[in-house]
Amino acid sequence: MVTNIKSRSVKISWVDPNNTGDGVLTGFRTKLKEKNSFIQNITKDKDNEYDLDNLTPYTTYKISVAVRNKHGFGEETITSFLTSEEAPEGPPLYVKVTAESLSSLSVTWEPPEKDKRNGIIVSYTVCISHEESELCFEKYTTKEKMLVIASLNALSKYYVRVLASTKVGRGPYGESKGKFTNGKQPKVSKNGTAYTLTFSLQIPSRNFT
Question: Which domain of life is it from (predicted)?
Fold first, then answer.
């Protein structure tokens, strides 16, 4: 029996079989597998429970238990369990910020690394700020892997960072990405106009002393 299932540990317990064969029980052997790879192989004396730890969140494991008498180990009993979720350990990957217009930015990304998701990603939070290390002046939550941020100032630089969440909690933000919104550049006339200034100087008609 598997009980007290957490994100990184479980408790397993069992009862003695009715038929112990030719002799008394002298111990048990437990094997823990993940994707057909052995994680633990433990032999214990007469003890009917064991705590497994150092497990990975949101991972399916198989556990087998076999009893031992003086002739050796008997047939294994196998069961499986799924560890609980945790908040992601890593940020979203490949965050890209693009200037869409005078007042909007487009943000795209991919989920965190698979072994750092710690569960099912249910949403993403996009933070926008005026400075790289400044608090967010606006946050957006979406289930998609892209977002268009509107109503921004033209020709202004903004910093964007993204985090992922499972149903348990939020993961860390990734690195801030700075981007300017598009702006109208001053137009320079190609057809210049030349102006000539003419000055007329007169010589005084009288002498001054």
Answer: Eukaryota
Residues 103 and 78 in one domain: no
The reported pTM is: 0.78
Does the residue 87 lie in any domain?
Answer: no
Asked, for residue 206, whether it belongs to a domain, the answer is no
| Three state DSSP letters for 63-102 | EEEEEEECCEECCCEEEEEECCCCCCCCCCEEEEEEEEEC
Over the stretch 27-55, which tens digit does the pLDDT of each residue have? 888 889 998 788 888 777 767 888 999 99
Measured between alpha carbons, how far is 193 from 6 in angstroms, rounded to an integer? 79
Rg (CA), the chain: 35
Q: Is residue 68 part of a domain?
A: yes
